[in-house]
Design goal:
The protein is mainly alpha-helical and about 450 residues long. Among the domains are: about 40-290, no CATH class; about 295-305 and about 315-360, no CATH class. Helices cover about 50% and strands about 5% of the residues. The chain is built from 21 helices and 8 strands. α3 (about 45-50) crosses α10 (about 135-155), α4 crosses α9 (about 125-135) and α9 crosses α10 (about 135-155). This is DUF3300 domain-containing protein. It comes from Pseudomonas muyukensis. Keywords: Signal.
Length: about 450
């Protein structure tokens, strides 16, 4: 009925000469589901795949890994330092790197050389893990809880002499989405707060049946030096414990999906970089990003460098030498640390996705787009040689033009040879056979038929 009245009113206004405006239904504000979809950089399968190698770490250690992963270049440098100093671990190792220009979260990881050895195996994975934590902290933390529930259902996550696993019921008026099929939160803490055992496990088996066959988790074998004689079948293996007092100063806040900081423990180990009591929530520091670009627009807007008026106007005009040098330094830093360069076009981004899918399906046969294999190179080499030889032939054909004297000498030798061949001997004129020296004699005297 209301629709009919609207149509009648529109017709009346049209007949009276009044302008009629097209009316469209008001869509209203976008719902949270649509807004979150627009901001997502990684889907659920990718988040589970990235979180799988570290989701079963104790909460304090997981918090340090997530914070440090947002500085992938410094993680690579810390891994190199740890490899060069294999005996350094615990609080003593953290104090040794106090003078390094690294973020405190990265410095804290040198207390656990087995963790840095794991992170050093795939810098691109570390980079993406940090990007996911900056762009989608809620989704990434929910992925960790989802994986922990799967490991618990599979019988591979339980309390023992190394760790305490507790299941915490959600608060009555929670507004956070459920992290898994259950609303409960699984918390993992070291059995002894001053001794941390880093678990080693195979993500392809510890979570039971993987939910995304097309995106299986990566398995990075643990360093044998830290896990002697441990065979990873389906459960967790624990190596030698690391004695610490202040190295782990972060902890996961599963209600707000961020990281809490123990200010006292932080200040005890970071004497040169103390913080106040109100700084009990972790904040990303873009200074330690080391030129690695941010993956999503929101992170770029939040952590990107703020330009003053003159520099901002210059930026709008186009590239200048200073920006070009800064961009090249950032790319060189990513290459030096083995990180992933940002895609320069949609085509390159699609090629990377296809390449990653090919590596998952057939790792041995996968080959990066545009990379020429050895067979291709061998097939092209003779063709290049033929073209080079053809160029030489063309050059030799016109060599006499550049050297008239040499060309004249060659022509004289040709006429002399022709005159000698036409000269007839008496024996030849009478039809008698001409005796010629044998081939052996000719070879001995260096002669022979030309």
């Amino acid at each position: 009925m209301r629709t009919r009245l609207s149509c009648v009113l529109a017709v009346m206004l049209f007949l009276q000469g009044a302008p009629v405006l097209a009316q469209t239904p008001d869509p209203g504000p976008p719902g949270p589901e649509a807004a979150s979809t627009e901001e997502r950089v990684f889907d659920q399968a990718q988040l589970d795949q990235m979180a799988a190698p570290v989701a079963l770490y104790p909460d304090p250690l997981l918090a340090q890994v997530l914070m440090a992963s947002t500085y992938p270049g410094e993680v690579a440098e810390a891994a190199k330092w740890s490899k060069a100093n294999p005996d350094a671990k615990g609080d003593a190792a953290v104090k040794q790197v106090a003078g390094q220009p690294w973020d405190p979260s990265v410095q804290a990881l040198v207390a656990f050389p087995q963790v840095l050895a794991l992170l050093a195996q795939d810098p691109v994975w570390v980079q993406r893990l940090g990007d996911a934590f900056l762009a989608q902290p809620d989704d990434l933390m929910n992925a960790v809880q989802r994986l922990r529930h799967k490991a618990q259902v599979a019988g591979n996550l339980q309390s023992n002499q190394y760790q305490n696993v507790t299941v915490q019921a959600p608060p009555p008026a929670t507004t956070q989405p459920p992290p898994a099929a259950s609303n409960s939160t699984i918390i993992i803490q070291p059995a002894d707060p001053q001794t941390v055992y880093v678990p080693a496990y195979n993500p392809t088996t510890v979570y039971g049946t993987w939910s995304y066959p097309a995106s299986p988790p990566a398995y990075y074998p643990p360093p044998p030096a830290y896990y002697p004689g441990s065979a990873l079948l389906a459960g967790l293996a624990f190596g030698t414990g690391v004695a610490i007092i202040g190295s782990l100063w972060g902890n996961c806040d599963w209600h707000d999906n961020d990281i809490d900081i123990d200010v006292n423990r932080y200040n005890n180990i970071n004497a040169n970089n103390r913080i106040g009591n109100t700084q009990n929530k972790w904040q990303h520091n873009a200074v330690h990003r080391d030129g690695v670009p941010y993956r999503d627009a929101r992170s770029r807007a939040q952590y990107g460098r703020q330009l003053d008026g003159a520099r901002q106007r210059a930026a709008y005009r186009g590239d200048d030498a200073q920006r070009a040098r800064a961009r090249q330094q950032a790319l060189d830093s990513m290459d030096r640390h083995g990180l992933e360069r940002p895609a320069t076009s949609n085509l390159q981004a699609r090629d990377r996705v296809r390449q990653a899918q090919a590596e998952r399906d057939n790792p041995r046969a996968a080959q990066r787009p545009g990379q020429r294999g050895p067979r291709d190179g061998q097939a092209r080499q003779p063709l290049a040689q033929q073209r080079q030889n053809a160029g030489r032939a063309r050059n030799n054909a016109f060599a006499g033009v550049r050297a008239p004297a040499g060309s004249r000498a060659q022509a004289n030798r040709g006429r002399s040879s022709q005159a000698f061949a036409q000269r007839a001997t008496p024996s030849r004129a009478m039809g008698q056979p001409v005796s010629r020296p044998s081939g052996a004699g000719m070879r001995q005297r260096g002669g022979g038929r030309r």
